[in-house]
Amino acid sequence: MAVDLHTHSTASDGSVTPADLMFEAAAARLEVIALTDHDTLDGLVPARPAAERAGVRLIGGIELSLEWEPGTMHLVVLFIEPGGGPLQDRLTDLQDARHRRNQTMLERLGAVGVEIRPEELAEEASGGSVGRPHMAAVLVRKGYVETIQEAFERYLAKGTPGYADRPRLTPEEGIGLARASGGVPILSHAHTLGVDNRFQFADLMDRLTAAGLIGIETHYGAYDADGRRSMETIARRFGLSPSGGSDYHGTYKPDVKLGSGKFALPIPSDILEELESRR
Ligand code: AMP
Ligand code: ZN
Ligand code: FE
Ligand code: FE
Which ligand 1 atom lies nearest to the CA of residue 166? Predict the structure, then answer.
């Protein structure tokens, strides 16, 4: 049986509703799915009864963006539910910071002649947490670019004219809040960290494990079989448990399939047992 421990719904920047995603998971013959929307647990509320009807096990989760230069550091937290808790209580702040960042980005895009109205963005996001993939979709729809990827390359990625940063949790804060809330923190898509030097990478892994990191994504949707194997070696070297997820976003990442990713490689369910034993 297979699992998918990293997915997005319309509660953030995926194109499929939380409930429909549960039925897609069942159709993809997944035994377990984790919903890990950016900065929000809201999707878990409608997903829960749908998962029951679809006959899949749903694990509550979230994806946090952490403070890191020069690249991108994302943390997937598994086994976390809506309600009260140290991490849950910080989400309103993170969502406010995201909202202010989005406004700044619309201003910066306007300054280079790219017009997105706030209503257009809200409509694209259909009530969920708004992110850059929604801006990308509006840019495609209005003919500024051909693809979501091109929207990022020209206007939305770090270092392009539309980009604006936002206050984020530090790695220690994110990992600490996850653990204090009973969650299992997992370093997501480590290739986006922008750390190529292996000594610097080792120092960073030591820093993150000292902070309480438990897992690292080895079976990530963008990795082929060789990539997954070398990430497993890295995981074991630093005492981290392997995790796996497609990072499914529906139409916002058209080449990524639920339950596998870009290469039709399933994610084995034994990954989950080890993560669960370290809760
Ligand atoms: P945000 O949380 O608003 O900063 O947006 C982050 C999301 O944008 C990520 O989860 C990815 O889905 C997507 N993303 C980031 N960089 C790129 C890129 N270069 N190409 C396509 N999608 C990207
Ligand atoms: Zn996303
Ligand atoms: Fe991510
Ligand atoms: Fe993601």
Answer: 4
